[in-house]
Request: fold
Amino acid sequence: MRLRAAASCLATLSLVACGDTKVMAFNTPPVVSIIRPLDGATFLSDEVIVVEGVADDSQDAAEDLRLYWTSSLDGDLGEDSPDVNGEFYLALTGLSAGSHALTLTVLDTDGESGSTSVGFEVGVGASGAPSVVMVSPQAGDSFLAGETFSVYGTVSDEQQTPDTLELSLSSSLQGELWSGAASATGSVVVEVAGGLSEGDHVLSLLARDQDGNLAEAGTAIEVIADGRPGAAISEPADGSRHVYTDTISLRGMVSDAETDTELLRTSWESDRDGLLASGAPDSAGNTSVGTTLSLGVHTITLSVLDEEDKVGSDSVVLTVYDPLEVDDDADGWTENDGDCDDGDASVNPGATEICDTIDNDCDGMVNENAWDTWEENDSFAAAFDLGEVDDSIWSSESITMATITLHGSGDVDWFRWDADDEWYDNVGISVRVTGLPSSGTYAIELYQIDGSTATLRDSASGSAALSVSYEGDLFDTDEDLWAIRFYASGWPSGSCSTSYSITISS
Reply:
């Protein structure tokens, strides 16, 4: 309409004067802001809460605006108008304990509106409220941006146990950081993983009891920009374990926003073994070294130094161990302690030897408590010497071993003797084994000995009873020395102490 009126006036300018043109006005909504309380503020239950702010409207005078107050907990709180400068002041009392969202709505004469809100807690420090102490950090402490740190505190309450209180930790710049519970003793430990953004933060530890009473402790800290170079260890993994003979690969990457990578200086260190390597990374920032480490728990640190002498670092913890010092079967004995089978908890130097095929007590012997009188005679070289078994002319003599045992599947009994062969007394050998259980399979072998050579002359196998024999050459006087080998080819389990008899005649 305004454009048409202007065009008509131009078209008849030479003939008539232009008439008045009416311009339409458009109403804009009012605006309002709350100066105090600050968002996140806390108040005692009996404290007067002062609300201040400013309202404005482009079309209406400030005193013609209407203000309406509501609480998320207590509903409508009343209405008012600002002064001629648009400023308003409100004193609130008797609000319910808890978290309030206070909303202020401003309405102009044309019905347009604007609003704003602020959140605060009521009931902090009220009678019967919990007790909160922030131990650390303390006021004025500073941290690097992104640096992980921990907040320590304690809480208590006269009406309920500390671990039933509702807790929260918040930052004035970043809002709520954590919510949870204390330990049963009231200890509070919160790790702020990844740290905070740069700036001045007020940390608040808030506790709420079952009646809605609140208590708070806070501290102001500074978070500054982290201008240090970066370091990150990729190998070995934190908590890894390594055998002491291993060459351990240490790998990492370094970087810096200001210094060229090639100008950075790196070092690898162990808190036990000292400096392991130093130098410069490659063009991509990679650094690596292979090394052996002493036995024990090591903290391995990769450090990087930039041109401004700022240092960044990363660390991992690893363990270097001797596998022979590890008690794999948890029986209280390691291999260095003498455990001969660290995969079997029933086998160790403190175990009791029992009748089986295992060296239970790791003393190098099997079933030694069932050894017979003639042990150890498990080989030809260790054969038990019975001496001369032939004191009579033209007749034979015999000897009996009545309590022989085969205490295990690997036990072998060797006996040797002198038959005293003469030209006038021909040798005749007879050996008989009795008392063998029918559940096993046994063998006996008869050997003639000539120096270091043993020639098999007879053998037998079976159970119950076994016999071997040999009739010598009448005119051969060199048939003096003899030996037998007795063993189980099928040893019956559990027969360690079962005794047998061997009778030798010659």
In short: The chain has four domains: 31-122, 131-224, 230-321, 369-505. Residues 442 and 488 are 4 Å apart (CA to CA). Residues 1-22 have pLDDT under 50 and may be disordered.
